Structure formats: structure tokens, C-alpha cells
Amino acid sequence: MNDREIDRIVEMAWEDRTPFDAIESQFGLPENEVIKLMRKELRQSSFKRWRRRVQGRKTKHAALRNYAKGRHRSSRQRTISNNKISKR
Question: By the 8 A CB rule, do 20 and 61 touch?
């Protein structure tokens, strides 16, 4: 993975409404690999803060969501069409 892809994965992982499933479909990284990547890329305090935010959060797990896909989509995600790199 190059630096641009890693930056995008970290950005998507911090977003509240981007599920781990979206990261897996775009980059092929399951949730446990995203956690390992975040641990490696973030400072320890930032990683702990991120883990507290996402642990058990329904919006980060598509199966736990109670609303339809596409709702609350970030305006920055409009240009992403299941490709590896954002078109911004």
C-alpha cells in the first residue's frame, strides 16, 4: 500500500458514518487489519481515542445499522466509486 491509500484508510476509519465494510470493499482490509493499521499509523493516545470512539458504534458496522445504505453520506464520498484511490 502506498502513502496515499494509507492516508485514505485512516481518514475513512475516523469518519463516524463510514462502515468497516466500505473500507474492506475498497481496499480489501477487514476490520482487524484496519485496527492493526491504525495502531501502526497513529500515536498511542490517538489510537486509544479512536478505539473508544468506534468500539461498539453501530454506524461503523453495516449489519448493526438501522437505516438504508446511502443515508448520511459525506459530500467527500460522492466522487468515490469503489475505486482504490479517491478522485479529489
Answer: yes
CA distance 32 to 10: 13
Give φ, ψ of 83 to 5 degrees: -95, 170
What residue type is 62 in one-letter code? A
DSSP state of 66: -
Contacts of 82 (CB under 8 A, 6+ apart): 25, 26
Lowest mean pLDDT across 32-36, 50-54, 60-64: 60-64
pLDDT, tens digit (0-9, with 9 covering 90-100), for 13-51: 998 888 888 899 899 999 999 999 999 999 999 999 999
Is residue 69 helix, strand or coil?
Answer: coil
| CA distances to 23, 39, 60 from 83, in Å | 11, 25, 20
Give the CA radius of gyration of the chain: 13
